[in-house]
Every structure is written in C-alpha cells, then in structure tokens.
Give the backbone structure.
Amino acid sequence: MTLFSAGPFQRRLLRWYTAHQRDLPWRRSKNPYHIWVSEVMLQQTQVATVVDYYRRFLQAFPDIGTLAVAELQDVLKLWEGLGYYARAANLHKAARQIVAGGKKRVPRTPETFGRLPGVGDYINAAVSSIAFGHPLPVVDGNVKRVLARLFLLDEPVNRPSNHRVFLEKARLLLAFKDPGTFNQAMMELGALVCKPGRPLCDQCPVASFCGAHQAGRVTDFPRRLAARKNPHHHLAVGLVKKGNRFLIVRRPATGLLAGLWEMPGGRVEKPENPADACCRAVLESVGLTVFPGPRLARVAHAYTHFKITMDLFACDVVSGRVKRNGYQAHHWIRMKDIGQYPFHRAMHKAFAALAGALPP
DNA sequence: AAATCGGGGTT
DNA sequence: AACCCAGATTT
C-alpha cells in the first residue's frame, strides 16, 4: 500500500467533524469528571440511550465528592435499565478511592487515572485525550470499523489478540495537536458515516484515503468471527405475599445484575414443571416453604449470551422464616414502593404485566 | 484468549 | 434473528 499521509487525512476529518458533529451534552462540558461519566455510560451503549441517564446522573452526583459519599443503592437506582451494572459500581468505587486519597478531582496523568476500577485502555485514552490533551489513540468499535476499511485489515475485529493491530493504525493517524478532538472525530465518523450496514461513502470526507472504498469492497470490512448461538433458560420466580406486602431480594455484589433487586426464584430444571421449580427455588434461596398459586405473568428477555423465559407465580407462605442463601438482603414491600429500589429489566417487565393483569 | 457482563437500536 | 454499540474484568 502507498505511504499514508496523516496530515491531509486529519485535516479532512477534522473539517468534517467541525461541520457535522452532533450536539451532545458531554461535548458542552470541559469538566473531566463529566467526560469520564459519559465515557463509562457510553461503553457498549449507544449515544441516544445515554443522554438522559447522563443528565440525571450528573444532577444527582455533580462532582466526585458527591458520588463518593452516596450509597451504592442510590447510584444503581440512577443506572437502572442502562445495563452492565458493574460500570456503576466501579465508578462509585473509583470516586471513593480518589476521595480516600485526599483528592477530589480526576487524576490528570494516564498512569494514575488508568489504575482506577473500571478504567481500561479505552476510557483512559478517551478521558486523558479529551479532558487533558494527552496524545493517546482511542480504539472503540467505531474506530475499528473505520480502520478496517481504511487499511483493508483482514484481522477479525472481535478477536482480542487483534486489538493491537488496530491500536497501531490508530496511533499512526492520531493528530497530536488536538488528540481529544481527533479521537472524537474518528468515532463520530464511524457512528454517522462509516456505519456497519450501509456506509454513506458519498458523504465521507476521507473516502479518497479509504482502501475498501477504492477497491469497491466496503461491505467486506470489517471482518468478524461468527458468534455462537445463545442458550435459552426457563426461570420461575415467586410473588411471595405476607399481608399486603411481598418479598424482594437483593442479588449478590458480583456477577450478573450485581446488587439489583428481584423477586426470589431460580432455574426450572429439566423434568420439573415451572410452579414446582418456583417453590423449590424459593425454599432454597430464602428458606420459605410456599404453595404455588396461579401464574401471574410470563416474561421474555434477552441477555447478551442467553435468553430467558421467566414465569411469575403467586405464592402463599406455608411455613418458615426468611433465611437467605446467596442474596445480600431482603425486604417486604408494597407495590407502591418498587420505585425505591433498582430492579433489572426482566423484573420491570413482570411488574408491567402485573399492572396490566390486575387493573386498579 | 475466551467468557462474562445488559439493554436497546438497526437491519 | 443477528449484529452492533465511545469496553472492562475475570477466568
């Protein structure tokens, strides 16, 4: 391939970015903490999804000190529905580490910032370049796609060992004068023009530099390894009532949906019927012997690596008192209290089904 | 190096 | 349905 000239590429890209960039709330701020929060929320999450969460989060936690003294429950409540809840826990933990070290601001050097929980190579490069001007290239999903097309890179983008290939190309292109703006321009190009399905090459400011475009092979890139099929799981959970209250439990601090609340339950094992599975799972997880009532709801939900069907059964307590196994906490609450707790999406679907089945 | 970790939008 | 998204951490 001919020698790639970074200067003209950068000028074309940056001129396009100046004219076409979206007006996003975090681009109106120079506060490093704001930039940081936005980058964490934007991890594997589209811009349109993040905007409202970003505003609400910064209204509640306007600075690192405020976040550090907050309860994790309250941080998770503001993260509710956004997914990848370890991001919230790590951000919260990082804020506490900064305050515990006698500071109240984002570390200005990549070496220090990069040691905080939840700060990997991408977020370190993004915050360090955008907020502090450090010349570190960012490589996210958008940038990988742009680079694969620009340089006809055959390496599958979803193979971890190929990451360094993309990082080296990004480093070659990086504009040292204003690396933060350049990095954002590369990502914006991927999001608005160099899109996965139908790239808008006729609107692309750097099409004349693009190997895939010149070769008429834009849709051949990026290459990717085939994903394997997702398994399906059947879950059964109980609406366990005591008077006018029902039981909710808080999931463990690590793993799937860490720290979120739900109704107790578990997997439906092979020969089992869902109602029996519900009773068994309630007994195993909270120590209550319950008798199954009617099925109140059936919810379908998809996670990244599996799908679930979740059945919700009314349950009457026969005997026992709560003895938790695995869960962090339990509360007996009324339906009007559910807004006080962070629940995962499948649980919200169940609540919605209940509201529809039992109109007021 | 692969698996895990959400949820929603797009095609 | 499969793919994709301003990835990080654990195994």
Chain A has a mean pLDDT of 96.
